[in-house]
Amino acid sequence: MSSTLLKSLLLGFAGILIGFIHQFEPFAEWEEATVDFRLQHRPKEISSGAVGIVAVGDEDIASDSFGGWPFPRGIHADVINILREFGASQIAFDVMFSDPDKNGQDESLANALAAKDDITLAYHFEDLVSPGESTSSEKEHFMEGNRYGVDVSSSTALAGVGPIKPIFSPSSMGAVNFNPSGNSGTVRRIPLFIQHGGKLYPGLAMESLIRHLGLEPDQIRIAPGRQISLIDTSQGNLTIPIDDRLQYRINYTSKINDFDPAFQYLDLYRAVHDDERGVVFRAAVEGKPVIIGDVSTGTSDIVSTPIGRLPGMLTQATVMANILDQNHLKFLEPSSQIAGSGLLGIFLVLLFRLRSAAGVVLASISLLVGYLILAYWLAKGDWMIPVLPVVEMLALSMIGSLWFQIAQARDETGRTLRALKKYVSPSVAERALREETFSRIEPERREITVFFSDIRGFTNWSEKKEPEEVTMVLNDYLKSMTEIVDHFGGTLDKFVGDCVMVIFNSPDACENHPVRAVEMAVAMQERIQELSDLWRKEGRDPIDVGMGISTGFATVGNFGSEAYSDFTAIGNCVNLAARVESESEAGEILVSEATKRHLEDAFETLERGVRQLKGIREPVKLYSIERNKSAAVLKA
User: Fold this and answer.
1) Which of 146, 214, 345, 473 is most buried, taking the most CB atoms under 10 A from its CB?
2) DSSP secondary structure string for all residues of 257-305
3) Domain map of the chain by residue range?
4) pLDDT (tens digit, 9 = 90+) per residue, 384-408?
5) 436-635 domain in CATH 3.30.70.1230?
6) Residue 631: its pLDDT value, please?
7) Which pTM value belongs to this model?
């Protein structure tokens, strides 16, 4: 399986998983918050006028004509009669008449209610609960409900507990319960039907529309989780999208000041006596459902919505207008959301083809910004496409791509380092990669210990042997020496044929480097003896190696050009070490007097006299390391 196909499958599976978990809380709640944000920030619209609004306002409350809130019931009776005179098709009161009128005008309002079957009063349940939840406050409902083709016994619709009846008993009443979402308390949905005692009871907005459209029960078909269909209405077939609890996702289009026209009670009285106002008022309510409620300052009927705090009656009015205008929020089906997230994951595998981290980040940000602009633009047309799953998939793909690039870079660095270590010391290789180029390793002057070794008689020996044997012996020897150099922390400067040059204390600091260099030399001689014994058994010739060590100050660093450079050491100390090595006998380790002073009691030495070395101005006293007396030190 190719790498690209594997990454496509993994990202596709991740997308499906993300799309799936966003169908459940709390992820669904978080996505709802993005819908709220879009509703709040998209352009607001003036109300379509499909629903007439009569709102008790501050001017009404302050008017001496009405005597303060709550108004005498006779005032409401007058408003009903005025609305009937101007042709309102249905009147819904989002006002609770749960107590007798202190002014004794209940009979006046009762007569107005009974005069015509065009009034819907509000009532409420004490609580809304999920089906099956037990409660001690259950009461019989005071109206006859309907099942509307739904098996309520297995329904997941919200259940109403303890219906509170108003003091009046008209033939039409609707529940005004809201069902705020999660911990935010935001009213995003409203139950259009509430189950109670095996029957369904419409909410205030739904009941008002049923009465306005003159619907019979068989014209209402409910498919939980999909839609409510209103069949053969005066406005054709209407559909209402709902969730499995028979709740409608409200399409908030307007704030309170955008409901135009809207009238206060005083406006109605003025319209009766002012022909010009009467024409305006008739155009606003004739043939339409009208909702009446309280929007005055200080009203307790306030709900928190995605676009701000609104009077409850305006939420009911919005629902009614949404349904009559068929102006619903549109969402992708859950299956489409899950599949879309999976396809997005497959598409985002393209990020893995970008070669730079900056390119990956820029592409991810560009895609995110573009998608958010698209989501905002579609929100203006009531389409609410998923946001958080896409954000999460982009973040996951970006992080995955960056991680992949880092892994590739590490792998490439590892391959480069392994290759580089074949030609230079590991410490030099690692520092070169760490500092990007050899030219960045600046030369410096510091005290170092330099080691040289050479196979005695190797040139003559190699001329008599086959190239394959020479290569085998030399490779085995140099491989073993390199391992020992690494073990003791030396820097392998170079191989010159069979000659080995090692530096201690550069480029990385090495404590007590003269001792470490001698320890390395002793280990090398021991290993050479082992190799020689092995070769003898195989019928090959053994080798003997002479070694020289010197300690002193030298210039170390990278020398050369931009095209080619080499890490090495330059100075008298280096030359001295080379000359000391040339004085050593087969199997011997010679050290200069400077190195001897640093060894103290670490090794037994044998003085080999003062010698005049080639290229060295002053005579040099040399010492030979007693290897047989150094084993304890090496083991320690």
Assistant:
1) 345
2) GG--SEE-HHHHHHHHH-HHHHHHHHHHHTTSEEEEEE-STT-S-EEEE
3) 3-22+332-416, 49-326, 436-635
4) 999 999 999 999 999 988 888 888 7
5) yes
6) 42
7) 0.69
